[in-house]
Amino acid sequence: MTSKIKKNQLNMVMPQDSPVHNWYRFVLSFPPHLVRDYLAKLGADEHSVVLDPFCGTGTTLVECKKLGIRSCGWEANAMAHFASTTKTSWQCDPDHFIAHCQQVAEEALDMTARSGISLYGDTPLFGDFRGGTMLRDLTEEQWQVLSRGFISPLPLHRTLILLETMRGYQANPYRGYQELALAKALVSRIGNVAFGPEIGATPPKSDIDVVSIWLSECKNIAHDLEIVQKLPYHPDSSVIRGDSRSTQSHAKLFDIVITSPPYPNEKDYTRTTRLESVILGFITNRSDLRALKQGLLRSNTRNVYTVDDDQKWIEGVESVQTLARQIEERRIELGKTSGFERLYHRVVELYFGGMARHLIELKKTLKPGAQLAYVVGDQMSYFRIPIRTGTILADIAERVGYKVESIDLFRTRLATVTKEWIREEVVVLSSSA
Ligand SMILES: C[S@@+](CC[C@H](N)C(=O)[O-])C[C@H]1O[C@@H](n2cnc3c(N)ncnc32)[C@H](O)[C@@H]1O
User: What φ, ψ does residue 409 adopt, rounded to 5°?
Assistant: First the structure.
């Protein structure tokens, strides 16, 4: 499938693809060229409607839009939903947008100066603001869901003033782009975070030029808008916030599905998006966070609840039950007793049960003969027992009435824990004609 792409480019957003995709992206999301390859393989054309039911930051949707193909995304995480929505909204005058951003920047700098903080780079900063009452801060409830190490006091103060300034405009038509630019700036430079692919804290920053960093992200957006607005077609794309395990629609709308659901490992998408979700107000306290987690496919021990019952969708599926049994037996053998370790086998059952439920529900929305591509990775996160995600998913899909067309190798990845190479595959399915 990816023969024209060199091996070391498999994971990359290539320079010619970067417009719009790079506005805000999950680390290691599948790259735009993979979407293009599968649109071609699955026979997409200008009459097709493509669905990504786990659309994340919108790689499938943006690529479809660039190619003139209608698309729809479903996404349960509010921050990712916002990113996809903004990345597929291309109607905005780039010059007016930038003029407005410059105005916001000037006002924010002015307000920052009035708050008693000098411009970035003007020394000396007077006083020690750390822990002081002069700085804008998040609420205690917000700090309960965000690690204090993820952003330092002065950068946070500057960020909150900038956000307040852009939100101060009634009916600001550029608000989506401006806030997405801030989200990107927060995770790339303002905050103290790095991805590898999990999120981790980096050393604190005494200060940083928040407004300039944000403005340069806004300029990138304006530049990209100029490029994509010249494309000859402007197909519709829509993004629905919802749980792909419950039906989002009963209309038979979709010809093609290209997607990458979470994998059964310990990656917590609410944590990788936490800094920007809290600052932009998508999560304001613990109960918001819990509600968010409950709407997600169970793929890690931090989002498993006693009431969960998705395992009932894979009763009798031997491949999953054997795997869950092996994991639990290994735990006992190793004498591992932590609360998280006790949940490993349950995550696996809930994950594949949730995927079975999703595939059953999805059928209601597929046109006869629809073609589907699911990008999934094998895992070894639970006591190093191999989880052949693609093979098991294909087995489940077949049981719930899909035809398995192929399981293609997309790329191999070095597992952080075991240092073994594991496969990431594309499971290609078709629904009955
Ligand atoms: C592997 S990521 C997708 C990345 C995507 N291809 C992109 O371009 O960013 C999986 C996404 O599925 C979302 N998700 C998890 N459970 C979901 C559910 N039940 N319904 C809808 N989306 C869900 C996560 O929030 C995450 O954004």
Answer: -80, 125
* CB-ligand 1 contact for 80 (6 Å cutoff): yes
CA angle centred on 246, ends 267 and 291, rounded to 5°: 50
Cα 273 from chain centroid? 8
What pLDDT score does 12 carry? 66
What is the Cα–Cα distance from 358 to 59, expressed in whole angstroms? Answer: 20
Nearest CA owner, ligand 1 atom 5: 56
* Distance from residue 205's CA to the centre of ligand 1 (Å): 31
57-72: pLDDT as tens digits: 999 999 999 999 999 9
Measure 261 CA to ligand 1 centroid, in angstroms: 5
pLDDT of residue 222: 98
* Closest to 429 (Cα-Cα) out of 245, 242, 259: 259
Taking the C-alpha atoms of residue 310 and residue 375, their distance in angstroms, rounded to an integer, is 21
Nearest to 396 by CA among 429, 427, 352, 363: 352
Q: Is 267 in the pocket of ligand 1 (CB under 6 A)?
A: no
Q: Where are the domains of the chain?
A: 7-90+235-267+310-430, 94-228
**Beta bridge pairs of residue 256:** 50, 371
Token duo for residue 116: 């008693």
Residue of 30, 51, 55 to mutate, ligand 1, most atoms within 8 A of C-beta: 55
Per-residue pLDDT tens digits for 126-148: 444 544 448 999 999 999 999 99
Sequence letter at residue 379: Q
Token pair 């023969």: residue: 3
Gap between the Cα atoms of 127 and 313, Å rounded? 60
Whole-model pTM: value is: 0.94
With a 6 A CB cut-off, is 224 part of the ligand 1 pocket?
no
Q: Could you give the dihedral angle defined by the CA atoms of residues 259, 318, 248 and 404, in that order, rounded to the nearest 10 degrees?
A: 50
Atom of ligand 1 nearest to the CA of 83: 9
pLDDT score of 419: 77
Closest-CA residue to 152 (of 206, 98, 105, 108): 206
**Picking from 2-11, 202-211, 301-310, 407-416, which range would have the lowest pLDDT averaged per residue?**
2-11
Looking at ligand 1, which residue's alpha carbon is closest to its atom 8? 59
237 lines ligand 1 (CB under 6 A): no
Alpha helices in 168-316 (DSSP H): 175-185, 210-228, 269-272, 274-279, 286-294
Assigned superfamily of 7-90+235-267+310-430: Vaccinia Virus protein VP39 (3.40.50.150)
CA 401 to chain centre: 29
Does ligand 1 have an atom closer than 6 angstroms to the CB of 82? no
